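User: I'm putting together notes for a lab meeting next week and I want to include a structural view of one of the chains we've been expressing. I don't have a solved structure, so I'd like a prediction I can at least talk through. The sequence is below, exactly as it appears in our construct file.
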Amino acid sequence: MESPFPSLSVAIPDSSLIDSKSLLEKSLRVAQFARSFSIFRVETVYVYHDVSSSVRQDDLKLITLLLEYLDTPQYLRKLLYPKMKLLQYAGMLTPIQSPHHKKFIRASEVQGGETRVGVLLRDRETWVVDVGLDRTIPFIGSAAIRRKANFRLSVQKGHLVAEEIHGKVRDTQYWGYHINCIQTLSEITRGPSDVKFLITSRRGKPISLIHQSLANSFKHTSEVVVIFGSPRNDVWEIVNKIDINILNSSLSVNMFPLQSTNTVRLEEALLGSLAIINSLRVGLGGQ
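Assistant: Thanks for the context. Below is the predicted structure for the 287-residue chain, given as structure tokens.
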């Protein structure tokens, strides 16, 4: 079933944690990012390089690792993520609880056609799948390496089996986000021509003046990509002359035209901006 509204993606800089000092503070902020992405059905999170700042590699690793960890169903986390310092506070973070984070159930309770996130595992001479049941399920198909994937469960000859779903899960429910690290924002402009790019900036046009025309433009858009700046620099300051293509192909929008604080924190900008975009998308027939 095709979605009645354009898909939603965001782009955040690898300097998103530059003003956070402790690992705990950084972890809590990334968890807020993940919650906003999941609440508003973000499908792709682009993490782009901020050339205007000196970024710690550990910060980039923490952003991607924690976002992936939080998007992973709890029944797979111990299997996929060994104990490590960067995940020290993971147990304190608010869970996402998206539709693909399904509960542990018995294999006998599974209904044919159900989709679950799982991990492909080698069991002696065969491949099986751990999808959060009381036992692993035989895998039907070709496999070479252990990996996380989406699987459709079905009953064949009286036995429950799992087949990998290639490509996007065709489900009316939200199925999480994936992360794509890029060097420049220009990389995301090389896709389809019907993608709408929005830069969030105080220099942009007030959303109150363009919300109707923006909503109308979504009718002819397959994807909306919302681009955010860093805690220290606006997108325009980060991009400057290096990524001029993204400036030429984007609409700059001031999401908080009556802003009464010196800055809007990134987690606040994400929640507020995505809420506004969501209301415009829902107006096209979403639920």
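A couple of points you could mention at the meeting. Residues 31 and 93 are 6 Å apart (CA to CA). Residues 23-39 form the longest helix (17 residues).

User: Perfect, that's what I needed.
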